[in-house]
Amino acid sequence: MTGLVTVGESLALVYGSRAGGFDAISDASVSFGGAESNVAIAAARLGAESTWIGRVGDDAFGRRITRAIRGEGVRVHATVDPERPTALMVKDRPAIGRTRVVYYRAGNAGSRIAPDDVPQDVVSDADIFHFTGISLALGDQSAATVLAAARAAKAAGVTVSFDLNHRSKLWSTDAAGAAFREVLDFADIVFAGDDEAALAVGDGAPEELADRIAAYGAREVVIKLGERGALALVNGVTYEQPPYRVEVADTVGAGDAFVGGYLAEHLAGAGLAQRMATAAAAGACACRGDGDWEMMPTRRDISELLAGGDPVSR
């Protein structure tokens, strides 16, 4: 088996090196991000075997993305599109503690991922196959390709993991809810923020949301609650995870770190309490610096946070 396999879009990232907004600063940094590749990196840093599958443009951004992901110890299967560019994400920080993200995705390579871009042997040999709602929102071709891969993984006996990861700028709430429910019919592990879960199953307390999602058939449901921690419902057992306190620099990528931590522990055979503790700690660590994935923690980082924590409240 090949551990964790993720499929989805990765984007170039340009972000201000300090607060003040792009209308006031004169320098910026270049990196990349993407929910599925972020999760793969987060899991790899915690010792899991992980793979990312995607499509990038034949450009400097695409080459940088694939090189950097490989540099994190993640296996990469990336198709290079000769015609379409790599998508771009611009992260603006108008003030300390505030982040504004703008996407330039029209006609990008990642949204045109096709069945031939997804090695079926890699998918069917995975322990866990993970994808997010972003792939469903990028367009019909992306949605069809990723859903087909997820269903093929399920048919091969692979555990299917799904993070709703709603992006309101990509589609309507009605379209998102319908697409999420389609996946809930076959996903084994489901991650969602409480607001995202409500799009699929209606408003309710975290416990109610988890119950309704589990009714579709998921064995494990994890509701991410941000500063309030997280709640899991696994095989009928409810577990509440308190948050870890850190000084926050940037929250983008924290949810992916949480998922990567949970899945890494899942692959390691850890129990629910350990999976949730590592997930929460990974999410907290990811908030302590800039970038979508650069602050993803190692095992040592997790151990230090669990041992002592940080006195500054999130």
Automatic annotation (TrEMBL):
Record's keyword terms, sorted: ATP-binding, Kinase, Nucleotide-binding, Transferase
Any one GO MF annotation of this record: ATP binding
The keyword Ion transport is annotated on this UniProt entry: no
InterPro entries hit by this protein: Carboh/pur_kinase_PfkB_CS, PfkB_Carbo_kinase, PfkB_dom, Ribo/fructo_kinase, Ribokinase-like
Classification via PROSITE patterns: PFKB_KINASES_2 (PS00584)
GO biological process assignments: fructose metabolic process
Pfam families: PfkB (PF00294)
UniProt keyword annotation of Phosphoprotein present: no
Residue intervals of the Carbohydrate kinase PfkB domain: 21-298
Highest rank taxon of the organism: Bacteria
Alphabetized PANTHER family for the sequence: HEXOKINASE FAMILY MEMBER, PSEUDOURIDINE KINASE-RELATED
Family listed: Belongs to the carbohydrate kinase PfkB family.
Protein name from the UniProt record: Sugar kinase
Species, as recorded: Microbacterium stercoris
